[in-house]
Amino acid sequence: xxxxxxxxxxxxxxxxxxxxxxxxxxxxxxxxxxxxxxxxxxxxxxxxxxxxxxxxxxxxxxxxxxxxxxxxxxxxxxxxxxxxxxxxxxxxxxxxxxxxxxxxxxxxxxxxxxxxxxxxxxxxxxxxxxxxxxxxxxxxxxxxxxxxxxxxxxxxxxxxxxxxxxxxxxxxxxxxxxxxxxxxxxxxxxxxxxxxxxxxxxxxxxxxxxxxxxxxxxxxxxxxxxxxxxxxxxxxxxxxxxxxxxxxxxxxxxxxxxxxxxxxxxxxxxxxxxxxxxxxxxxxxxxxxxxxxxxxxxxxxxxxxxxxxxxxxxxxxxxxxxxxxxxxxxxxxxxxxxxxxxxxxxxxxxxxxxxxxxxxxxxxxxxxxxxxxxxxxxxxxx
Length: 382
Fold this sequence. Notes:
Elements: H1 3-30, H2 33-39, H3 44-72, H4 74-88, H5 90-93, H6 98-130, H7 135-158, H8 163-180, H9 205-233, H10 243-266, H11 268-289, H12 292-306, H13 309-320, H14 328-354, H15 356-359, H16 362-373
Helix pairs in contact: 1-4, 1-6, 1-7, 1-8, 3-4, 3-6, 3-14, 4-6, 4-8, 6-13, 6-14, 7-10, 9-10, 9-12, 9-13, 9-14, 9-16, 10-11, 10-12, 11-12, 11-16, 13-14
């Protein structure tokens, strides 16, 4: 193995660790939300506003990410944001008021927004160095981190571990991972002038990719929040209703680890179209089955379909601006994140009017839109 191959393999391990840590840290926070609702003696309304602060912080961070990348480089920015997220985790976990929680989540969300954009930019740089698709595998490690982070949070809560002790454990893990996953030799160095590069792709391709990211993450958010309730409406009890989302998560993660090989064989456009078709087919299976088992099976199909859409879109955005110093990645990431936020309430409002099963047919519309718009994944001739 020559030096370049060794450096590239080290870069793959480093970026994989960052994706894992990002998912793990986010999931560690999510596990404490029900406890915080009780400890702060609040209702869903004020808690929802506090959670919205995290979303606002994430959007702010995504907006700042190109500037940070120009100053320190994408890899160093992602690495430092991982440290900051782990350090900040204990602040929202130990919040004593809803206002304090909101302010803590604003900062935590901003660090996450910066890390999200910059680690994807660094991942695209590693992928270019390798000369083959690996973006889906990186996102697979994020999914693994989410699963293990939730399980760790549940274990900490079940054991009665103080919130700051749990946060300290996450910080210790972050320290080990980041020490073993340095940002050196990944992507482009920071730009001395700080000037953003001129666009290398004309027309509205960035906005087309952003629209597809919005739709894909809209569907992910809708399935995440409403699949369990659909299953419950078809007779599942409180213990088994969440299995629908578990089915989605398992195939979503597994599909990402298989996605790089599938993308090499079929290409981005075919994978995008297939993802939309499977998402539409999966929700039809779930809704028309009128059974919890059918909902779980349908969610498994949706997970397979959507698993690789976002990684492929991020790869396409990175190809427009390989340096990561422009706004292509931040735009696609930010608009996609907005879709994840909009999806659940949109389905909820529609369900009030026509019922949840019919409201979830929005997923069919979204799947069709993904399939129809997947041509935007084809690079334009320069």
